[in-house]
Structures are given as C-alpha cells and as structure tokens.
Amino acid sequence: MFGSVKMCGRLNVIDDPGVRDLCDQLGISLWPEQGQIFSRFIRAAQPVSLIRQLQGKRCMQNAIWWLLLEPTIEGFKPSRFASFNTRYDKLDVPRSAGFHAYRHSRCIIPVKGFGETEYQNGKPVHYHDLEAEAGQALALGGLCREWHHHSTGQHMLSCSVITLTSHPKLVNIHGKSMPLILPQQDDTLSLWLDESITNTEIFNDLLAPKIPANLIATPIDKPASHQPVAGPFVIEAD
Questions:
Q1: Does pLDDT of 103 surpass 80?
Q2: N or C: less crowded end of the chain, CB within 10 Å?
Q3: Which segments cross the bilayer (predicted)?
C-alpha cells in the first residue's frame, strides 16, 4: 500500500448483469472466449480484466493488479514496491511509476464493487464491502503498463487503480482514501480511454473525491469469507 493514502487491495468482479452492461457500453462484447476474469474476491497481485484502447480500438485484456513488475529468470513477478494503487498526487510527478501511464495507457477496470479495511495503529478494526446497486457496475479509473522479458520473450500487462483522498461520506468506512470511480452518464469513459489525449489537465476534476453512483455498503467479518455482520446501508451519490 502507498504511503498515507491507501485502498484495500480487493475487488469484486462477479459475472453480473451490471458488469456486462458496462462492458457493452464500452463496446466490449463478452463471450466465453473473451476470457474475462470473474471472481468475488480478487486480491492485489492477482490477474484482473481491464478495458483499454489500442490504436483506436477498445479491447479487454487481463493484467496483473500490480503496476510495477520485476524480471525473474522465468518471467516477471510483482515488484517489492507496492503498486496496486497509484496515488492521485503522484500522477504528475515525472519519475513516479504512473506518470507515463497516466498520459499514454489509461484503462478502466469494470467491477461490481470493492472492499475497504480500516486500520488503527497498523491493525484492522473493521471491514466493508461496497457495491454498485442492482443492475449497475462501477468503472474504476486505472493505469496499465506493458512489459517484455528480453530473455524469454514473455509479454505481460500490469495495472493499478488510481486512489483519491477519502470522501466525507466514506470516512467512517475508510478514512484515508477511495478509488477513482468514473462517472458513466457523460463522455468521461470515452475521454479516459482515448489514447490520443495526453494532456491530462482535462481530468483534473476527476481527481477530487466524488461518488458518482449510489453504493451499497455492508460490514463484513473478514475479506476472505465476506459474511455480513450487520445490515447493508446506502451511500448516496453526490
């Protein structure tokens, strides 16, 4: 996890009508051969499906959810530097891991929801799952990078989720950060994927914490079992 702005490393990408509708909206038709990864519990450093634009055409690809990779004798492994999240305030730092990707390889990670863990003194005190409403999905703003292994010839794709400071409505769930959730009601998704846009000033407004859609929050016992310990409640969109 990065510095003082953290998001817990788990995603919910179930095979849900809302997730499929979001992919359809982005011009991605999901068929068995598409190979999209569906899982109720995707951890950091595991494969996840993302949508990006290459030479003007949108495509779905699978990537390691960890932006920085290190070469090994046989291929790649996640770097020792945690990079499943990329902090919003590092995007314009020239030597940061996400600087080039923010300008040239933005992506969208379609999910049903994500998980947050609140820590005090380095120890978890509570866990929440947050999901889109029924029939809806969330479009997380992300970055991706391509890697080529000079010895094996292996090609790998990696990615991260951009994180923002916490939203006032979420501080009791996670007081330090939230993921970048892209609005779906306007042309934001198309602009975000447009590889010809390298002047990222047009995205400055997105880097302020916003909740563009209602979220259903459920307190759970722990991420692996995700059993509710209290009833769900609605966090209303801004």
A1: yes
A2: C
A3: none
Q: What are phi and psi of 236, to 5 degrees?
A: -75, 145
Fold of 10-235: hypothetical protein yedk fold (3.90.1680)
Quote the CA–CA distance of 73 and 106 in Å, as a whole number. 29
What does the radius of gyration of the chain's CA atoms come to, in whole angstroms?
17
Output the pLDDT for position 124: 86
User: What confidence category does residue 165 fall into, taking pLDDT thresholds of 50, 70 and 90?
Assistant: very high
